Amino acid sequence: MTTEKQRNKFIIDAGYNTFLLRSEDVYIDLLTDSGTSAMSDRQWAAIMMGDEAYAGSRNYYNLEAAVTKFYGYKYTLPTHQGRGAEHIISQILIKPGDIIPGNMYFTTTRLHQEIAGGTFVDVIIDEAHDPESLHPFKGNIDIDKLSAVIKKYGAKKIPYVTVSTSVNMAGGQPLSIANLKEVRKLTQKHGIRLVHDMTRVAENAYFIQQREPGYKTKSIAKIILEICALTDIATMSAKKDALVNIGGILAMNDVKIYAEAQNLAVVYEGLHTYGGLAGRDMEAMAVGISESVQDLHIRARIGQVEYLGEKLKERGIPTVLPFGGHGIFLNAAKILSHLPQEQFPGQTLAAEIYKDSGVRSMERGIVSAGRDKKGKNIFPKLELVRLTIPRRVYTQAHMDVVAESVERVFLRREKIKGLTMVFEPEYLRFFQARFKQ
Ligand code: P61
């Protein structure tokens, strides 16, 4: 624990960027659910079973078997984390001038598409950009938007469509199986592949089970297999759903693309049977995948997110609705409505919450959105702060502390001043940018 006086200094030293705080100066860390979940006793036992051979580690084959059993994809390439997989698939499939439609951008995914010479086009339904819309599947793709993009650019210019389950930047919002089937039908007609960002597929499956007609009695495991079967290739950051501290996968059914991916892996990640991971990491991932598809686990996990959401709702604090899978997203634009977006309301709110209580959150607004290809700031409709909940780490009492802190900041919101950016790195600026009040 720290004092308010200390925190006021720490946040200035960190340039008002919660990514630049030291973790020991943080009391409750809701920066991210990425790599921050607690591994189970079974996963720690798996760590002791590492086969650290350079090539052909037993743990690789166990991981490959787990991916096929629980996700259905035939071939698996381990990567050091999600963006390693994104890099490889972007380099293989995207040519300069290509267009990649997807259900809302994700920072690292879009950057790798751009580095490969492509342009991302958002085809998510409009409701996703409205924090208050109660649409049950705000992660859905707008079929008319996707058709229009295919018509405008032609299928030859579209190497694939990115389909994310639990759309992160929209607030952890799910897509429905019905929507995915429609997307599949349309893209198959044009010979376009689907690349599935399955980083939080189990959380999406839970919302399908709860909300989509016909799925109430289906297990999370079955629903996940059904989602994966409707796609061709998957990238995954295993640091989220799959409950490990580090790791990712690129999985697919096409043996030719797999061969290319194996070859690129040796340049950027490591040999294709370890991809930047230790044997023990792959074993922990194999166990984590099997735990992540269990109904009781996922219900408890999303139940905790809902608990925090309800606490904030009771206090009249504007959030993205419905509550998402991995965290509660505060509507910073509404909370700090006196600040124009150029003064970074999300960044400001995250800094104020830290100052109040040592709770760390993350901006998800104009800083995260970055600049377009001409160098102009992108002004996203969503200006948010993400309170992200690691899995199997915190208690409901911690959630109470968080809600009370957000309320205190909310009550003094009108006095809060905005920020100016004083340092902006070239790539993924939100990670390292610095600000002044
Ligand atoms: C997160 F502020 N997410 O949510 P890697 N796809 C998806 C992700 O959520 C994801 C990756 C791919 C993070 C970490 C992070 O703008 C940020 O294993 C849906 O992190 O390479 C990561 O996977 C990339 C935080 C990443 C960010 C980018 O906290």
Written overview of the protein:
This protein has 437 residues and is of the alpha/beta class. It starts with a helix and ends with a strand. Strand 3, helix 5 and strand 4 form a beta-alpha-beta unit. The strands form 5 sheets. Strands 2-8-7-6-5 form a 5-stranded mixed beta sheet, with helices on both faces. A 3-stranded antiparallel beta sheet has the order 9-12-11. The protein contains 16 helices and 14 strands. Helix 1 packs antiparallel against helix 14.
Provide a quick synopsis of the model:
The chain is an alpha/beta fold and 437 residues long.
Helices and strands, with pairings:
Layout: H1 4-13, E1 28-29, H2 41-47, H3 58-71, E2 75-79, H4 82-93, E3 99-102, H5 107-115, E4 119-122, H6 143-153, E5 160-164, H7 177-189, E6 193-197, H8 201-211, H9 220-229, E7 233-237, E8 248-252, H10 255-268, H11 279-292, H12 295-314, E9 327-331, H13 332-335, H14 345-357, E10 359-360, E11 362-364, H15 366-369, E12 384-388, H16 396-411, E13 420-423, E14 434-436
Parallel strand pairs: 1-10, 3-4, 5-6, 6-7
Antiparallel strand pairs: 2-8, 7-8, 9-12, 11-12, 13-14
Helix pairs in contact: 1-14, 2-11, 3-11, 4-5, 4-10, 8-9, 12-16, 14-16
Ligand P61 is lined by residues 32, 34, 81-83, 106-109, 164, 168, 197, 199, 237, 239, 248, 362, 368.
What portion of residues is helical?
Answer: 40-55%
- Taken in chain order, the helices and strands follow as HEHHEHEHEHEHEHHEEHHHEHHEEHEHEE
Summed up, the helix count is 16
Average predicted confidence as pLDDT: 98
Number of strands: 14
Distance between the termini: 24 Å
Query: Which structural class fits the helix and strand makeup?
Result: alpha/beta
Strand % is 5-15%
Low-confidence segments: none
**Radius of gyration based on Cα positions:** 21 Å
Named once each, the bound ligands are: ligand P61
Sum up the overall morphology in one term.
globular
Largest sheet, if any? Answer: 5 strands, mixed
In what order do the strands lie side by side in the largest sheet? 2-8-7-6-5
